[in-house]
Specification:
By secondary structure, the chain is mainly alpha-helical. It has a domain at 34-118. The chain has 4 helices and no strands. It has helices at 34-46, 50-66, 70-83, 109-118. The longest helix is centred in the middle third of the chain and has 17 residues, at 50-66.
């Protein structure tokens, strides 16, 4: 049986691990940019197109820069652009809420309904 890797059929409930393998803030403010990462995780959880990922990554950059950390923001952008690819079976890949493998692609109406039903977090996505 062939499974289309672009569209997985089941979405897991939303989870966020904060800034994944990166600090959530500074020594003085340990959660300074945590909300930026949580919003970014929401976008990555649901996945979507290449352009949506790029917009989410740029929104993360802007969010972290807006809390006064433009250099950290650039470092984070580099990390998510390299490490967030949907082609690796990581827990923080683009579209991590869906079964692996899953490629870039627009969400179907059914998938959007799953996103709505399983969005248990009040976090507002960065890219919307």
């Amino acid at each position: 049986m062939f499974i289309n890797p672009v569209m997985a059929d089941t979405l897991s409930p939303f989870t966020s691990d904060g800034c994944s393998a990166f600090p959530d803030g500074t020594f003085e403010q340990s959660e300074l940019w945590l909300v930026c990462c949580q919003k970014h995780d929401y976008d990555y959880w649901k996945g979507g197109t290449f352009d949506e990922r790029l917009a989410s990554d740029k929104a993360l950059l802007a969010c972290v820069a807006n809390v006064g950390q433009p250099q950290i923001a650039l470092l984070m952008l580099a990390g998510v652009r390299v490490g967030g690819t949907p082609y690796l079976p990581t827990k923080f890949r683009w579209g991590y809420g869906w079964s692996y493998p899953r490629d870039y692609g627009a969400l179907t109406d059914d998938e959007r309904k799953q996103v709505e039903l399983l969005s248990t977090s009040p976090i507002v996505p960065l890219s919307e």
